[in-house]
Amino acid sequence: MSAPPPPRPEIVIDGFPRRRPRWLELATSADHKDLGRILVGGALGFLFVALVELLLMRLQLAIPENTFLSPVTFNRMLSLYGATAVFLFAIPLALGLFYYAAPLQIGARGTALPRLGQIGVGLWVAGATVLYAGFLFTPSEGGINPLAPLTEVAFLANNGVDAWAAATGLCTLGFVFLAIDLLTTLRNLRAPGMAWRRVPVFSWAAAVSSWLLLAIGPVLLAALTMLMIDRNFDGVFFADGSGGAPLLWQHLSWIFFSGAYMLILIFALAAIAEIVAALSGRPLPGRNVVMGSLVAIAVLGTLAWLQNMLTAPIATGWMYFGMLMSLALIVPFGLVFFSLIETMVGGALRMRAPLLWAVGALSAISIGLAAELSHSMVAAAWQLKNTTDATAATHFALVGGGVFGGFAALHYWFPKMTGRTMGETLARLSFWTTALGLFLAFVPLFFAGGLEGQVIDAYKFYGDDGVDAYNLIASIGSFVLAIGIVMTLVNAIQSRTNGAEAGHDPWRGESLEWLALSPPDPHNFDVLPDVRSAHPMRDIRAAIANRTRSGKAPARERQPVA
Amino acid sequence: MTPHSPGTDQIDTLVWIGFLAAAIIVVAINFALLYAVRRYRAGRGSEPRPAQGGRRSQSRVAGALTAFAAVIFVLSVVFTEKAKETPASGSAGLAAAEGEPLTIRATGQQWLWRYDYPNDAFSYYKLVVPVDTAVELELLSTDVVHTWNVPELSGKRDAVPGKTHRVVFRADEEGTYEGSSASLSGQAYGSMRTAVEVVSPERYETFVKQQKADIEAAQDRVVELIEAEAVP
Fold first, then answer.
1. Which CATH number is correct for B97-227, 2.60.40.420, 3.10.180.10, 3.40.50.11030, 1.10.3290.10?
2. Which residue has the higher pLDDT, A529 or A469?
3. Element (H, E) at A404
């Protein structure tokens, strides 16, 4: 008779008593859950700030030739809005949720390089501080992607552009650090048995996004460094003459912004994949296809940067290259949408808040991406580029991904993060208000830009442009959108302390984060199962059901939890 | 916007093709979502069907999507090639030298467009061109990136400092066509407009001659004042 195999050594900590105030504990923590919560909480706060800036601009554009904001103030709001929405809301929300959930999903007890992650979050906080410290004196007037040579000292002499470059640079460096930590964790700390093919889709997306950030982050950092040298040390990287090339900035910055656009969609689609699988009670049928498609989206989407430069003086051949990469994206995006819908068809859908937001996100993203199609068809882009049609398409895709997809993920992992569920009634009310607001705010801009050619980023329009009604409806709609979003922010704040107790596995999820307590202990797991499939929680539930039914325990090596 | 040049005709058609493709995608996805959500709601003891390995359906979908993308790519290339061709001047147009287009230099500067005509006359804000004549604008910028944008006559083109870009069109009807610059270029960007006045060849000739005479007269007057020490 052979002796049973020795049990795997497990370190069990029952929690240390707290010795310092909670905020200090949070601010100095290197735990991925604390850092993730800082990122998510901060991102949601900056979503509110971005909304305020959007509303100020929409007030200015409510009626023709309005004088509510001066041209300079409008450009400052535009620059702040862009930097806030991208660097302080969308990317950190995605990274925060990746950073919180991915280590739990792969059964890790922490991240591999916690201090690096801590520095990453610190750099992001520093970037946000610089951006809004700049707000106190002179914010940038350069726009969402400030095109060189407008950013040269000769044209914008005050230090707004410097503050913008420093802020976005610090944030990007922080994101790169977080990406390194995430990748190292995902490569090294997966639970026993969790091969890459068994990694949950959301964790896979965290790896893809991290690789993407490692590719595009340094590109933007290089461009920002050149900009800083131009502005402060008489450089000529982007200045015309003396060998400078204004177009170089466009290439480098669009590589980053195209990649970031894809990152937000990859995050949203992967979160939606988890939610759809859990709440329709069926695993994704085409898991490998979805995972491969996310990689394709990251690669092709970044290579499609030239899609943003179709009116620039570049050879038509390059334009066709940009178009080819953009149109190739139809295949992976289409396959992901197909797999998600295929999962729902034949499932038993529990239309709780996460799934509601997820379906809304899919709908909004589909409209945004379909509208982007014309912006990559070269000659069509010559007409549509830099019109409000582009504003509308981008906002449908990125509000669909960042806000709807982000909120779906927030409602889904909120019980894990806080132990409480977000209020369902308010969630529904918020969803329908936000959806109505999105359509009211941006569908009119499709018409204003597509039919009347209203140009982007302008602080005013004229009465005889024929776009009065469109802009008025869009302005009203943006207020509805803001009310809807604020409802969810209020819901999140209230539910943190007053929500219904959620339990550890409220959605009957598929991956290991639902094995941990809600909220998880600092060390995440007391015990870990041997992972034998892509959905270990489903296996564990089946084993428990089996054991209860048969009345006798299965052999030791067949038990999922050691 | 009604197209008023051969190039914008092609652009307009391609925009509608893009719209149609987008409409197909939006309708297909959203109806599928709506169907899934309405039909497969949990309740009444419904159990999820076991997942089938849909490898075959996936490769079919991938094939269909690839074909869809390829068709759009080919159509886009065809229409783009046609749209960027330099049109030939018509019979009602200005008889330009050896069928070459009438070349005018357009310079973007914060926050006005300047147009230099072949006879050294120039004008700000308003460009005057003869009807039914192939016109080529040489786009330049003296400061930041500006986008020349008169949608009825041509697609957008960026004027980037240090680079030359080209706009070609042939206006088919007399009239005034307006446009706004389309790249954020600083504070007065929102009011950086331009207008193209399309007139008969005779009126164009008179305009450039008169403009040149006016400019020379004005310059002479300035020289006179300087010599008389009437200006500080």
1. 2.60.40.420
2. A469
3. none
B125 shares contact with chain A (CB less than 8 Å): no
The residue among B13 and A20 whose pLDDT is bigger is: B13
Q: Quick check: B80 and A387 CB within 8 A? A: no
Enumerate the domain spans of chain B: 6-83, 97-227
- Nearest neighbour of B157 by CB, restricted to A311, A342, A459: A311
Q: Output the average pLDDT for chain A.
A: 92
Does the structural domain A28-528 have CATH classification 3.40.50.300? no
Contacts of B11 in chain A (CB under 8 A): 379-380, 382-383
Nearest CA in chain A to B68: A330
The predicted structure's pLDDT at residue A14: 64
User: Does residue A15 or residue A179 have the better pLDDT?
Assistant: A179
Which residues of chain B are modeled with pLDDT < 70? 44-45, 51-54, 96-98, 232
Supply the pLDDT for residue A529: 87
The ipTM, to two decimals, is 0.94
